[in-house]
Structure formats: C-alpha cells, structure tokens
Write a structure and sequence with these properties.
Blueprint (H helix, E strand, L loop, with lengths): L1 E9 L6 H12 L12 E7 L5 H12 L5 E8 L2
Antiparallel strand pairs: 1-2, 1-3
Length: about 80
C-alpha cells in the first residue's frame, strides 16, 4: 500500500478571500511579517500499489479539484 498526498491550491490569478481573512487576522493576533496567505486543500490517500500515476491525476483533476480555478500536485510519500 502507498500513501499519496494531493495538495490543491487556488490558481494565482484567483481571488482567495479565506487566505486574505487569515492574512488580515495575523497582525491583529500579534504575528507580523506574513505578506500573503493562500488557503488550499490537503488530501492523503492510501492506495494499492497497483494504482498508477495517470489514475491519481484523474482523481485529483476530476474529483479533488476544480481545474478551472485550482492547481494540484500529486506526490507519493513513504510511510
């Protein structure tokens, strides 16, 4: 069995109101020096070794992300 991580982030040109809210709150909470925040999604999948990279890309693109407004990165990690 393998662990796969899929990180999904808004494309750079897409407004990220959640990230902006976090960025605005940080100085009020005493955390300074953070210039920008982008909020995304993080998925961890445990898959059989037979699941190939093409299938993982299809899962990420067709189910875990909205490819019109989001980019994704799929990577296998050691357990």
């Amino acid at each position: 069995m393998a662990r796969v991580v899929v990180d999904v982030m808004p494309k750079p040109e897409i407004l990220d109101p959640q990230g902006q809210a976090v960025a605005g709150a940080l100085p009020r909470l005493g955390f300074h020096g953070v210039r920008d925040v982008r909020q995304g999604k993080h998925f961890e999948l445990d898959v059989d070794d037979s699941v190939d990279d093409d299938t993982l890309d299809k899962i990420a693109e067709g189910f875990l992300s909205n490819p019109v407004i989001e980019d994704f990165v799929v990577r296998r990690v050691d357990q």
